[in-house]
Write a structure and sequence with these properties.
This protein is an alpha+beta fold and about 120 residues long. It has helices at about 1-25, 25-40, 45-55, 100-119; strands at about 60-65, 70-85, 90-95, 95-100. A hairpin with a 2-residue loop joins β3 and β4 (about 95-100). α2 (about 25-40) packs antiparallel against α3.
Length: about 120
């Protein structure tokens, strides 16, 4: 049992070294891994996430989750795409606006709609 544990620890150590090299050699690699996690948490499928990470635009209908607001927003036939900013950073955009801004607008619209219903 001890030998198997040592082998496992050695494999983990080797994988960590390889990952560290990949992060140094390909600085955007870590960002892509984080983006994949974020897209999946947001509600995109693995297939949709892969398309987004390859630079494709996808059409999406369904619920999107905001970790920042801890709420869901209905996305009705929106266009999603990863876009580079001026500093060459990658960001997810919904209908040509950064996703954080899109969520803010959706929640603002939802609050205004609730206020008009109360009147």
């Amino acid at each position: 049992m001890n030998r198997a544990n040592e082998q496992h620890q050695q494999e983990v150590s080797n994988l960590k070294r390889l990952l560290d090299k990949a992060y140094r050699w390909f600085p955007s690699f870590k960002r892509f891994l984080n983006m994949e996690r974020e897209f999946l948490q947001c509600g995109f499928s693995e297939e949709q996430t892969e398309k987004l990470l390859h630079g494709h635009t996808i059409n999406y209908s369904g619920w999107l989750h905001s970790n920042e607001y801890r709420r869901n927003a209905l996305a009705d036939n929106v266009s999603a795409q990863v876009i580079r900013d001026e500093k060459r950073n990658l960001f997810l955009h919904i209908n040509q606006m950064p996703i954080a801004q899109w969520f803010r607008e959706q929640f603002k619209i939802n609050q205004e709609h609730k206020r008009t219903l109360k009147r």
